[in-house]
């Protein structure tokens, strides 16, 4: 009887979720109204030159290798020997960065992309609200989008709701919706899941990819899973577990794969 009650409760909860999403504001609003609403949730800004420089150095130290680095000889050397960063003349390197590398970034083209995909992003935000109510997925009333010429394809700041998008002279390197939603998921699970259960980098990436492919599959068709992402964690995730109690599912996972 207890099992049947739990089963019935879960079915009702999923039904309420489906009704919520189908009747969500993103599907009721006109295109113009959706754009106005999304402008209150996603704000585009830029980092200062100093902030960009600090992020670049931190990324060189954190990531073992990636492609989007300045072509300047000084930074190519750091890419090859990141361990020397702690001993170099930071003031001199910053002057080089400021005079020979740094370029201010326009924001209008990203604002245009966000407006274009307003309905999709608004629906994604509403679905994140469901997870917030069910098990504490972290959401921010406003996410600040920062374009960057250098670094990984995307990045996130879980303490502020900042999302970084890697761009080049032609625009965004990756699809706008995919990157923003992917980084929103990172922010949402960083403290309550990743840090709480001490997940490794690739366990974290495997979890984020699985959430994106399961929960946002209609918004992100043909979502590409990162090949290095941990595959074991995927076995413990179903759509139902994700909606109802992701911490419980990850608790089962770490019980089988102790830290």
Characterization of this structure:
This protein is an alpha/beta fold. It folds into 2 domains: 2-45 and 117-256, no CATH class; 49-100, no CATH class. The chain has 11 helices and 5 strands; from the N terminus they run αααβαααααββββααα. It has helices at residues 2-22, 25-28, 31-38, 49-62, 73-80, 90-100, 108-116, 118-135, 176-195, 201-215, 239-256, and strands spanning 42-44, 143-148, 154-157, 162-168, 171-172. Strands 1, 2, 3, 4 and 5 form a 5-stranded mixed beta sheet that branches. Strand 4 and strand 5 form a beta hairpin. Helix 3 (31-38) crosses helix 8, helix 8 (118-135) runs parallel beside helix 9 and helix 8 (118-135) packs across helix 11. The two termini are 36 Å apart. Residues 1-27 have low confidence and may be disordered.
* Total domain modules: 2
Report the portion of residues in β strands.
Answer: 5-15%
Shape summary: globular
Helix content: 55-70%
Mean pLDDT: 85
Count of helical regions: 11
Summarize the structure.
With 259 residues, the protein is of the alpha/beta class. 56% of the residues lie in helices and 8% in strands.
